[in-house]
Amino acid sequence: MNREYFWLSDEQFGLLEPHLPTDTRGKPRVDDRRVISGIIHVVKSGGRWVDAPSVYGPRKTLYNRFQRWSAKGVWSAIFHALANAGGPPA
User: Fold this and answer.
1) In angstroms, rounded to a whole number, what is the distance separating the alpha carbons of residues 36 and 87?
2) Among 36, 33, 24, which Cα is nearest to 75's?
3) What is the pLDDT of residue 24?
4) How far is CA 86 from the centre of its chain?
5) pLDDT digits (tens, 9 = 90+) for 31-78
6) Lower Cβ count inside 10 Å, N or C end of the chain?
7) Cα–Cα distance for residue pair 14/8, rounded to 1 Å
8) Model's pTM, two decimal places?
9) Are the C-beta atoms of residues 16 and 8 closer than 8 Å to each other?
């Protein structure tokens, strides 16, 4: 793996996966792990969505997923669940 990119480990994604929305309609979502890794990369780097590396998929997908899940409270629910799980982040 290239060190300039952020990728969730199996363990990290395993902690997130139970908290992801399952109420999707229509087309199946693209790879959650790839998209979430891309979102984290953009947020950590302080970059713009348009500058997200293409290895994470379409930049519009990253932005849309971040915005939709923010509006639905998904990110807050994930952060609260992980914080309540105790211990340092993996």
Assistant:
1) 22
2) 36
3) 78
4) 21
5) 999 999 999 999 999 989 999 999 999 999 999 999 999 999 999 998
6) N
7) 9
8) 0.85
9) yes
Long-range Cβ contact pairs of 19-26 (< 8 A, separation 24 or more)? 19/74, 19/77, 19/78, 19/81, 20/74, 21/69, 21/72, 21/74
Say if CB 43 and CB 69 are below 8 A apart: no
pLDDT tier at 15, thresholds 50, 70, 90: confident
Is there a contact between 57 and 38 (Cβ–Cβ < 8 Å)?
yes
CA distance 23 to 89: 27
Read out DSSP for 2-18? -TTS----HHHHHHHGG
Domain boundaries of the chain, sorted by first residue? 31-90
The count of residues in the chain is 90
